[in-house]
Every structure is written in C-alpha cells, then in structure tokens.
Amino acid sequence: MKRSLNGQSRLLLAVNGLFVLAGALSGTFLNVYLWKARQDFAMIGWFTFSQQLALGLTFWIAGKWVKERDKMISLRLGIVVSGLFYLLVLWAGPHTVNYIWPLGFLFGIGSGLFWLAFNVVYFEVTDMETRDLFNGWIGILGSVIGILGPWASGGLISMLKGDVGYRVIFTLSLVVYGIGILLSFRLKKRKRGGTYRWMDPFRHFQKNSPWRQAVPASAAHGLREGVFSFLVTLLVYISTSAEWKVGQFSFATSLVSLVSFWAVGKWLKISHRYYGMLIGALLITGVIGPLLWKVNYFTLMLFGIGTSLFMPLYLLPVTSSVFDLIGKNKDSVEHRVELVVLRELSIMAGRLAGTLLFIVVFGLAPRMTTVTWLMLGLGATPVLSWIAIRKLIREPVDAA
C-alpha cells in the first residue's frame, strides 16, 4: 500500500504549483505573442533552442552551489530570474523578437535554477514508495493549472484589445512568482552534500551501468518534448487566429490530463511500469495520425485529448524509474545532484537535437506537411525511450 505524502512534500508541491501557474498564465501565450510580432517558425525555434541550452548549462554549472551550499537559494533565485524575464518582456513589448537569444537564455537560466533545486529536493522528500504518488500529484496540479491558467489568460487577451491583455497576464505572472518566493521560505533548509564533481555526470557509462539505459531514454524523451513544447499551442493559434481558442484547447486537454494523471498515479504499480510505459508510448504516437490528414482545430483537439489521456502511462514510469536509479545505493544517493544534472543534460541533448532538426528540415521544405511529418517522427521517440529503458523497468532497482 502506498504511503501518504509528508508535510514537506505537500509544501514542495505548492511551490511547484505556483511556479507552474505563473508559467501557464503567460508562457502558454508567449510564443503566440512572438508569432504575432513576426510570423517565423525559425525565430520561435531559436528562442526555444536558446532556452533549452541555457537550462541544461545552468543545471551543470549551478550543481556546485546546490550540492555544496543552499538548495533553497537556487530555487528562490530561479523564481526571481523567471520574474525578471517577464518584466523585460513587458518593457520590450513587440520588440521582444529582436532579443530572442538573450531573453531565451535568461528564461532558461531561471528555469534551470528552479528545476535543479526542485528535482534534488523532490528526490530527498520522497522515496520509492511515494515517488509515483508525488509524480501523480505533480500531474494533477499541472492539469488543474492548465485548465484554469490558459483559459483565464485567453479570455483576458480576447477581451482586452491590442497588447493590453498580454501586459496584464505578464504582470499577473510576476505577482504569482512573488507569492511562490514567500511560500518557499516555509521549506526546511536541506543538508549540504559533499564536494561537487564537475565531470561526475559524464562518468556513468562504464560497462553494465544502468545509466547506459537511462541516459538514452531521457534523451529520446527530450527529442519530442523540445519541439512539442512550443509547436502545439502555436498550431492551435495559427489554425484559429483566436487566443480564446488556445485557452479552450488547454482547458479541454488539461481536464482530461487531470483525470488521467490521478488514475495512473493511484493505480499504476511498479510491476506494471514495463507494459504501461510501452502502451503509453504507442498510444501518444498513434494520436498524431489525424494531423497527417488535416491540421485544423478539430484534429488538433483530437491529438491534444489523446495525448493528455495516454501521456501519464508513459511519463510516470520513465520519470520515476530514473529517480529510483538515483536512490539505488549509498554512492548514487551521495552523488544525487550530479545524477540529476546527468538526467537533465540527457534531456537537454534530446531537446536541442529535436529543435535543430525541426529548424533545418522546415527551412528546407517550409510547408505544413513538413511540420506534420516532423511531428509524427519526433512524436514516435517515446517508443525509443521505452526500448532504451525497458530492461531497467522490467527489473526495478532496490532503493538504498
């Protein structure tokens, strides 16, 4: 029987929820805002690329501070830098498109500082028995926020003409970030680790190391995530030319995701991860099919609802299995910061490769059919992730 979450776990969930809410209010429409200023897929792609590059490098560089100093400072600083990003977007307005690289780097640094600290603390406040439950609650919170945040933002943008709506939601995000910082002071200060080993994330590739499975699986996961993170919302807007439709799309898909994450987090047992992940990977690939026929609001909705329904079957096993690996023995627990960095660098490599592939291929054949076939190819990479990690999830590790 799964144990319940402790007080620090619930508080960490709340801080995470506020950080995600701030992103949902504004981040959902950030690429739409850029697209309205300049209709250029490559520009959006490079903006995403710069974020992903900065995020991965921040994980690696800030790992020293998080292990040897104070994790909570990194977490709070990540919230502050993310708020600063939206403050600069408010200042730059439509001219934001002229500062894609520096702003993308700033956004990536803020995200990297927050998620590095969050992932390490998440590992420390959960164990093998509660990790799926915690991840399930992360999915539930994300879904509730995905229901309310973009729906409210889309309505505001549609009601307030011009850039006024965007300025309002960017300001709201700043306020939510501020509340998140205040709440984070209730999290207990975590113990410091030993000396941070800069090259430690790269030494886990000796023969028979389980990280030879976990790293390719994480990279394959990133291949899909890098492109889908910006492309889906943008396609909804391009197909409808209405921000409120984007909010409606997010409302419907997040509502489905809420139920799905709750169910999978509650009932998916460790022994079922093997087939659960495979079924989830196949199904989230299959739901891309309608887009090959035609890209419109209806087919995008079919894709979005299908993805929301089946994603937890894939995502919870691959996430929990990698974090279980970090808790495999005393040595891996001692080097948990470096292993969290390794996981993020693996995902980053996949994200960068996927985004570069999209930019290059679409640049050679700038047609909507190119976009949909790229979505199918990149959308099938969760199957590669399962192939890479299948042996690891068939025989789960024992926690130290």
UniProtKB/TrEMBL annotation:
Membrane-spanning residues: 12-35, 41-61, 73-93, 99-122, 134-152, 164-185, 274-293, 299-326, 347-365, 371-389
Keywords of this entry: Membrane, Transmembrane, Transmembrane helix
Keyword Membrane: yes
Pfam families: MFS_1
One cellular component term from this protein's GO annotations in UniProt: plasma membrane
Recorded GO MF terms: transmembrane transporter activity
Cell location: Cell membrane
CDD domains: MFS
Entry membrane topology: Multi-pass membrane protein
Protein name: MFS transporter
Protein's organism: Paenibacillus faecis
